[in-house]
Design a protein that fits this description.
This is PadR family transcriptional regulator. Strands 1-2 form a two-stranded antiparallel sheet. The N and C termini lie far apart (about 45 Å). Helix 2 (about 20-25) crosses helix 3 (about 35-50) and helix 6 (about 110-135) runs antiparallel to helix 7 (about 145-184). The chain is about 65% helix and about 10% strand. The protein is mainly α and about 180 residues long. The chain has 2 domains: about 5-85, Arc Repressor Mutant, subunit A, CATH 1.10.10.10; about 95-184.
Length: about 180
């Protein structure tokens, strides 16, 4: 996926400045597609020159005017074309999995600390996703969501499921490594 498409989606959800986009990436889209502030500003500048986004100056009190970006017709067309293109399923490239296999040729128990570190990172990310879900989507009894919100929630639910799967796998790896440690 190109950063262009992630930015277009974010701007269709809500127009905003480059700074506001960067904050949204940190809070939601960034769960699945990361970008630095510099990357976002560079792409916005190119998208503006390509006619994909419109820009308007928004006056601010005591500060320079900010630029607010919104999606223009050609940007909407580009996103639509991309949405209709097939994409290949992603391949998993997982350094930790290779380390775990390689540990069979060294000291498997020596990997316990590294696996625990990864487990903590996934625990933290799951907690972050769950907090975001509670904040942004509330209780299911609140009623049905519109299509945009429901699809946003579907992506977040995928992230939650992924983190839970990773935690289950890491628990399995830790149990396996503990058996090697006990056998020493």
């Amino acid at each position: 996926m190109a950063l262009d498409h992630a930015i277009l989606v974010s701007l269709l959800e809500k127009p905003g400045s480059g700074y506001e986009l960067a904050r949204r990436f940190e809070r939601s889209i960034g769960y699945f597609w990361t970008a630095t502030h510099q990357q976002i500003y560079r792409v916005l500048k190119r998208m503006e020159s390509d006619g994909w986004v419109d820009v308007r100056d928004v006056p601010q009190q005591g500060r320079p005017d900010k630029k607010e970006y919104s999606v223009a017709g050609p940007g909407r067309d580009a996103l639509s074309a991309w949405l209709h293109e097939p994409i290949e399923p992603e391949s998993v490239r997982h350094d930790l999995a290779v380390k775990i296999r390689g540990a069979a040729f060294d000291d498997p128990a020596a990997l316990i600390g590294e696996v625990e570190r990864h487990r903590q990172a996934h625990t933290d990310r799951l907690a972050h996703y769950l907090a975001g879900e509670a904040r942004d989507f509330g209780e299911p009894s609140a009623g049905p969501l519109d299509a945009e919100r429901e699809l946003q929630h579907a992506v977040l639910r995928g992230g939650i499921a992924y983190e839970r799967m990773m935690l289950a796998w890491l628990d399995d790896v830790l149990a396996t490594l503990a058996r090697f440690e006990a056998a020493r």
